[in-house]
């Protein structure tokens, strides 16, 4: 009977150890499945630079291996994200993301907005807005989203007055109720606007194209007061939204280290509302 009792105690102890070992193995298995190799896509220029200089180093300190893939168009980064070639991308604003996802039946979600190069009004003929003459010609983007941004800048500068009832995200030339300087609008493909600065009186150039053309954002006669919907954001597949690597990307962008790099190396970039509020 005594031997039987000893046997049962040993058997029970072995069972408990086995259970603990199994639990530890399960825990280790869970940890080992956490993604530590990330591929982040961005358009070549300021946003791939932002990933390389301001986001990648912080993630590497968290133990990630980060590969940055550069794109030269606005279509492939989302397709590559959707098919799993990327874990996240950085190149687009909210309106573009939502429209592209809807048109291509993708399930994408934003993680966090980042400082973004603003559109500006540039000129080789005028040194200030006060010098702009009656009837001056201004080149504007020919796509509706960026054209709306240009009209909002001109309204803020006092050159035009828009219909108060118009949606600020979709305003167009037809919404102009008053053209104070009788400006002449010349729609041009956005990528060609930096060249247009040489041939027209004024040009409304989106920040990413200005930087790609080696223009200084601070040379603009005026920079836009950018609505947050137009700020670029980190985007992931919706199914990944609650994964740890996404939380770590968000934490990296929210860090003081990230903002310090922006202040030092991305001068002229407009900061999103969440970043400005924490300074108040």
Question: What can be said about this structure in brief?
Answer:
With 280 residues, the protein is of the alpha/beta class. 40% of the residues lie in helices and 21% in strands. It is built from ten helices and twelve strands.
Structure description:
40% of the residues lie in helices and 21% in strands. With 280 residues, it is of the alpha/beta class. The strands form three sheets. The chain has a five-stranded mixed β-sheet, sandwiched between helices. The longest helix is centred in the first third of the chain and has 31 residues, at 2-32. It is elongated, with a radius of gyration of 26 Å. Mean pLDDT is 89; it is low at 1-32.
Query: Which percent bin holds the helix content?
Result: 40-55%
Distance between the termini: 77 Å
Say how many strands there are.
12
Low-confidence sequence ranges: 1-32
> Structural class, please?
alpha/beta
The tally of helices reads 10
- Specify the overall morphology: elongated
Overall pLDDT level:
89
How are strands sequenced across the largest beta sheet?
2-1-3-12-4
| Largest sheet: number of strands, sense, barrel closure | 5 strands, mixed
Strand content: 15-25%
The Rg value, from CA coordinates, equals 26 Å
* H-E string: HEHEHEHEEEHEEEHEHEEHHH
């Amino acid at each position: 009977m005594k031997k039987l009792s000893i046997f049962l105690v040993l058997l029970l102890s072995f069972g408990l150890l086995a259970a603990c070992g199994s639990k530890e193995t399960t825990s280790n298995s869970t940890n080992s499945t956490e993604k530590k190799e990330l591929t982040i896509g961005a358009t070549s220029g300021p946003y791939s630079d932002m990933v390389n200089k301001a986001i990648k180093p912080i993630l590497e300190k968290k133990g990630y291996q980060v590969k940055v893939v550069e794109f030269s168009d606005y279509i492939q980064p989302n397709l590559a994200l959707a098919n799993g070639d990327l874990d996240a991308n950085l190149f687009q604003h909210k309106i573009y993301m939502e429209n592209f996802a809807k048109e291509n039946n993708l399930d994408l979600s934003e993680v966090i907005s980042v400082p973004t190069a603003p559109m500006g009004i540039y000129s080789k003929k005028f040194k200030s807005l006060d010098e702009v003459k009656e009837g001056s010609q201004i080149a504007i983007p020919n796509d509706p989203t960026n054209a709306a941004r240009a009209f909002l800048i001109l309204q803020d500068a006092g050159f035009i007055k828009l219909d108060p009832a118009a949606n600020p995200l979709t305003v167009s030339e037809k919404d102009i109720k008053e053209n104070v300087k009788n400006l002449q609008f010349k729609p041009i493909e956005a990528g060609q606007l930096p060249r247009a600065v040489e041939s027209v009186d004024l040009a409304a150039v989106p920040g990413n194209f200005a930087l790609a053309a080696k223009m200084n954002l601070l040379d603009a006669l005026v920079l836009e007061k950018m609505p947050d919907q137009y700020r670029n954001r980190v985007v992931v597949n919706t199914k990944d939204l609650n994964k740890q690597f996404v939380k770590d990307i968000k934490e990296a962008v929210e860090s003081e280290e990230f903002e310090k790099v922006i202040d030092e190396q991305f001068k002229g970039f407009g900061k999103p509302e969440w970043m400005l509020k924490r300074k108040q």
